Amino acid sequence: MVFARPSSSTRYTGLAIALHWLLALMIVCAFGVGLYMSDLPVSPTRLKLYNWHKWAGVTILALSGLRLLWRLTHQPPADVPMPAWQARAAHLTHGLLYTLFFATPLLGWAYSSAAGFPVVWLGVLPLPDFVPVDKALAETLKQMHGILAWGMAALVVLHVAGALKHQFVDRDGLLARMRPSRS
């Protein structure tokens, strides 16, 4: 992935910060709803939660596209000094997270299509099915979507742990780069 060169700024742009925290909130909520709804019996509540989960997934996909476009066209702040292995681990984690920001909702959408349940974003915009209805394929895609969702959850925990380490152990100001401004 090719990103814009680092800038001399010590903070991300306001839009980058807003997208980071909005996506973080949406991903955590979509994951929680996904866990909760999967154990519910078939009911109007379950169907409503499935729709909300799909709407969140499509929104996460769209905002991830915007976030990636912004990241590719705007210079990030200069890196905080850290051992090379930590920098490599951070870059790898970020790359995997970005990959999962796209792959997880796309697999969920494909699962929905294969199961014969169209995605209608916010109940008003029907999205195209991009795989044919196929129950066996749907089951495979459902499992893959779940595996990627759990993988993303693990990476989010790793990402948060790294940020907290930098904040409370290293005290190097890394977390301040993504903290919303108080001004």
Describe the structure in your own words.
The protein contains 4 helices and 2 strands; from the N terminus they run αααββα. The protein has 183 residues and is an all-alpha fold. Helix 1 runs antiparallel to helix 2 and helix 2 crosses helix 3. It has one domain (14-177). The protein has helices at 14-38, 44-73, 84-114, 135-170; strands at residues 120-121, 125-126. The protein has a two-stranded antiparallel ribbon. The mean pLDDT is 94.
What characterizes the major β-sheet?
Answer: 2 strands, antiparallel
Q: In terms of structural class, how would the helical and strand content be classed?
A: mainly alpha
Spans of 5+ residues with little confidence (pLDDT < 50)?
A: none
Number of helices: 4
N-end to C-end Cα span:
33 Å
Helix content: 55-70%
- Which percent range describes the beta-strand content? under 5%
> Could you give the order of strands across the largest sheet?
1-2
pLDDT averaged over residues: 94
Strand tally, please? 2
Count structural domains.
1
SSE sequence, one letter per element: HHHEEH
Gyration radius, rounded: 18 Å
Shape: elongated
